[in-house]
Amino acid sequence: MSAWLESLQKAINYIEENLLKDLSIVDIANEANSSAFNFQRTFGLLTEISVGEYIRRRRLTLAADELKRTDSKIIDLAFKYGYDTPEAFSKAFRRQHEVSPSDVRKNIGKIKSYNRLVIEVRLRGAEPMKYQIVEREGFQAIGIKKEFLLENNGNLIGIPKMWDELNGDGTTDKLAQINNGQIKGVLGICVAKPNEKIDYWVATDYTGDVKEGFELIELPASKWGVFEVHGPMPDAMTKVWKQIFSEWFPANGYQHAGTPEFEMYTEDDPFSPDCYSEIWVPLK
């Protein structure tokens, strides 16, 4: 198993060993030597659920098992598995198991069990990935920046809205027109920050004085993995991101450098099967 997969398994083991404690995404990500953003994104791509949802499912699985095996009071189990009130516990329990805690105690209905995640190496890669390794000096981009909280998928909700707003008011068109750098198109740049936050930029590669209404971001010199994306948004982009983390990283000696990454969007119709875009991942 590659070091990258081993670090991911280490983080999962940490979750399991501390399921009954207050778990911080920062502490979990540290186990994988990753930023909170990169870990949450990688986990979500590989499992198709969020870290928080995995923790919730596992706790309610253990709670259901304890209900069936012991005489523990429902109120005690509610507090043990992280709920402030028996009512909140019962609501979450019914949402997962489609049966109430009291019914499980009476052996009425079936419970839905989610097992502990184990990372396995599987043969993949029948579908080719087109990429190149590029070394670039540091460069600057200008654009619009917004901060998003990772908690409750704030970034997943907010970033598409941000694109809709900037596409609607002509900002992305303006950015495409003033581009004068080596990387063409409009960039979606993600910068991980402490305290489960990210800065997200809609920007363009640009050299010169900052245009009015825009801010400047400096991207450091880096070795980049540049991956081609072909197909309509957002599915084509999501598919390649998943391939990068589930196939490419485990099969190569590289790791994510932890510095800003970005997606490059051309002027192609984003809904066309012929749409071309790129993913730029900093490597170490």
From TrEMBL:
This is AraC family transcriptional regulator. Signal peptide: none annotated. SUPFAM superfamilies: Homeodomain-like, Probable bacterial effector-binding domain. Gene3D superfamilies: Homeodomain-like, Regulatory factor, effector binding domain. InterPro entries: AraC_E-bd, Cass2, Homeodomain-like_sf, HTH_AraC, HTH_AraC-typ_CS, MarA-like, PH_domain, Reg_factor_effector_dom_sf. Keywords: DNA-binding, Transcription, Transcription regulation. The keyword Transcription regulation applies. Residues 1-13 form the PH domain. It comes from the Bacteria. It comes from Solibacillus kalamii. Residues 9-107 form the HTH araC/xylS-type domain. The keyword NAD does not apply. Pfam families: Cass2, HTH_18.
